[in-house]
Specification:
alpha/beta; TIM Barrel; 8 strands; 46% helix; globular
Length: 299
């Protein structure tokens, strides 16, 4: 029996750090409270935007535990639990489940690449061994592992695979959705800011987005204009207003830009961990200008 598929807007949370690069959990609570108050439906703890790849396993586990504790059941949590082997992924996913997470987000095997059969068996083993639902993280720009829409349908039919997070072009995402929308307790989740509105328009009702950290209220409004008010014209206008900020989210290595945006709003974005580079002064200036343009007072 499959776990329930996610629905709505999920924030891939940034991880605030102190100057010595230790995790600032007071600041983490501030961000979590801000996005929940802004209308977000769920949180992703320890994802790529959260700089999990710059953390030890013990830090990743602590971040998942603290994220669940701070959230305290207000919204459901996705935990980044991908590891290089199925056994290690299952162990971290079940740790997250015990902390209170509802889903685990897992990358396909990468670096030493395998075949489609190898990827299928990896996800089948992870899904069978995990206490919570598994979301496949499809990000070929980072992994150089591209899953065809037909293969995504095959993964979607595995018990306990509940979603695929798509970070790819609109043609692929649309076809993946059209091949899987009939599968119970499964969904496609859009994760590219410029493709959110087109994806909503064809019926994709679950999403991650870096910008949800910074502008949760506006992104909630965009979603509701489609799914509650059926007002595509108003959604188009809001999307046009926000699109320059979409482009900035990965103008420099992320999550630097969104942390710069949070800083500009007076929220604790802060530094990124080395070897990631800090957002430039030019980007910070541009970010402040765009935030002022849409009506925010900046710091």
């Amino acid at each position: 029996m499959k776990s329930k598929a996610p629905k709505g807007l999920f924030v891939p949370l940034v991880t605030p750090f102190h100057a010595d690069e230790s995790i600032d959990y007071d600041a983490y609570k501030t961000i979590i409270d801000y996005v929940i108050d802004g209308g977000m439906d769920g949180l992703l703890v320890g994802g790529s935007t959260g700089e999990y790849h710059m953390m030890s396993l013990e830090e990743r586990k602590e971040l998942i535990k603290k994220g669940c504790e701070i959230t305290a059941g207000r919204v459901p949590i996705v935990a980044g639990t991908g590891e290089t082997t199925a056994k290690a992924t299952i162990a971290l996913t079940n740790y997250a489940a015990d902390c209170g997470a509802k889903w685990g987000l897992v990358l396909p095997p990468y670096y030493q690449q395998t075949t489609e059969d190898g990827i299928y068996e990896f996800f089948k083993e992870v899904a069978e061994g995990s206490k919570i639902g598994i979301i496949v993280y499809h990000t070929p720009g980072a992994t150089n592992v591209e899953l065809s829409p037909e293969f995504i349908r095959k993964l979607a039919l595995i018990d306990n695979i509940v979603a695929v997070k798509e970070t790819i072009d609109e043609t692929h995402t649309s076809r993946s959705y059209m091949l899987t929308y009939d599968i119970p307790n499964f969904c496609i989740m859009e994760a590219n800011e410029p493709l959110l509105l087109p994806s909503y328009a064809i019926g994709i009702d679950a999403a991650f987005s870096i910008i949800f950290n910074m502008l949760p209220r506006e992104m909630r409004q965009l979603y509701d204009l489609i799914f509650k008010k059926n007002d595509l014209a108003a959604a188009r206008e809001l999307n046009k207003k926000l699109s320059p900020l979409y482009d900035m989210m990965e103008e420099e290595p992320y999550p630097g830009p969104v942390k710069a945006g949070l800083d500009a709003l007076g929220l604790p974005g802060g530094i990124v961990r080395k070897p990631l580079t800090q957002p430039s002064a030019a980007l910070r200036k541009k970010m402040k200008k765009e935030l002022q343009r849409i009506g925010y007072k900046v710091k």
